Amino acid sequence: MPLTSLGFDLGKTGNTVVTVIQGENFKLRCSHIQSLSSIAPSQAEEMLKLNCAIYSPDIVVLESNGPGYVFIDYLVKNSSNTNLPIMSVDTGNPVPDDLELELWDEIKLTSRDFLNIRALMYWITRLVFRDKRMSLYKEDPELFAQLSKMGWEFDENKKDKIKIESKRKMRQKFYQSELGPISTGRSPDKADSFCLAVLGYAILHMEHAVSSRPALPDIEAVIEPPIGFDGFFPIGRAGIEWE
Amino acid sequence: MLMLFTGDIILCCACEAGLWRVRYDSYPDPVTIWKELIPLNADVPTPNGPPKDIFDRKTFLPGCPFCNEVVVTATNDILTLQRGKVPLISPAWFQWAI
């Protein structure tokens, strides 16, 4: 079943970026990327609703760090639309302990590998590009520059956990680099939005995998939500945190 | 020691994409291997601009024209790279996505 995920990022540099990713069995297509030079909640909400009306996403992933927190608060207090499948994620949080994400060709990711959710979502993005499972509706030099300049390392304290470069370091890198006007002094908002959409798809994929398992005959069928994910919340009520 | 033959394609350990083709048969060593390689995919845009002519990089240790900062070295029979310099997402992978 085709699934649609929408990543929505509000950056500290004043940009709002939405990314739409659609796919089935982790064969993904980025159908749309849109940037707005504003993080005003009313404008961001308009942009969000418009994209939801066009693409009817199964999930909308919002980063709850920084300006995203303000926007979520705004949505909860002001939005009249109560049906958007929004999930807020604090990407600085650790990955839920019992997470096991099966991708393709027996690639399995677990919480043991990653320092936080940010590392997880970038790593999934890495794998879909590496294994040729992502197609883009158009060439986007800014997105390419942001994604490919992202660095990673093993965490100094927890040696076996993958850690992604901080946004502050990324901004410095863009500022100091010779990448030209497309990225100079910018934070990786497009890359973040893109990876949030990929994370959203991965969550849908987990949920779908769980719900499509055949029920055991002697046990009452109970469809569990994916690990660390409690379901959608309608705007107007408190947002959930993925933790 | 690893023997490279003309026409062999070397996978950059960082990019995991075939970027270099061996120009002449050679026994590579960390100092001279890059002289024997020419970059492939020269028309693929990278965030760093067009792939640099590898022969313009004589003052540098061999680095992948796409990754730029990644240092590729040849040991007895494998190509290795400096840990921690591996890009998360290789620019070369984008050519498959568009």
- Which strand order spans the largest sheet of chain B, edge to edge or round the barrel? 1-2-3
Work out the helix count of chain B: 1
Order of SSEs of chain B: EEEEEH
Number of strands of chain A: 10
User: Quaternary arrangement of the chains shown?
Assistant: heterodimer
- Radius of gyration of chain B, Cα only, in angstroms? 13 Å
Largest sheet of chain A: 6 strands, mixed
Unreliable stretches covering 5 or more consecutive residues of chain A: 177-185, 216-243
Brief account:
Chain A has 243 residues and is α/β, with parallel strands linked by helices. Chain A has helices at 41-55, 67-78, 117-130, 141-148, 167-176, 189-211, and strands at 3-10, 16-24, 27-36, 59-63, 86-89, 100-102, 108-110, 134-136, 152-154, 162-164. Chain A has 6 helices and 10 strands.
Q: Any overview of this molecule?
A:
- The complex is a heterodimer of chains A (about 240) and B (about 100).
- Helix content of chain A is about 35%, strand content about 20%.
- Chain A is α/β, with parallel strands linked by helices and about 240 residues long.
- Chain A has a 6-stranded mixed β-sheet, with helices on both faces.
- In chain A, helix 4 (about 140-150) packs across helix 6.
- The longest helix of chain A has 23 residues, at about 190-210.
- Chain A is globular.
- Chain A starts with a strand and ends in a 32-residue tail after the last helix.
- The model of chain A is unreliable at about 175-185 and about 215-243 (pLDDT under 50).
- Chain B has about 100 residues and is mostly beta strands.
- In chain B, the strands form 2 sheets. Chain B has a 3-stranded antiparallel β-sheet with strand order 1-2-3, with no helix packed on it. Chain B has a two-stranded antiparallel ribbon with strand order 4-5.
- The longest helix of chain B has 4 residues, at about 95.
- The chains are: A alpha/beta (about 240), B mainly beta (about 100).
- Chains A and B meet through helix 3, strand 8, helix 4 and strand 9 of A and helix 1 of B.
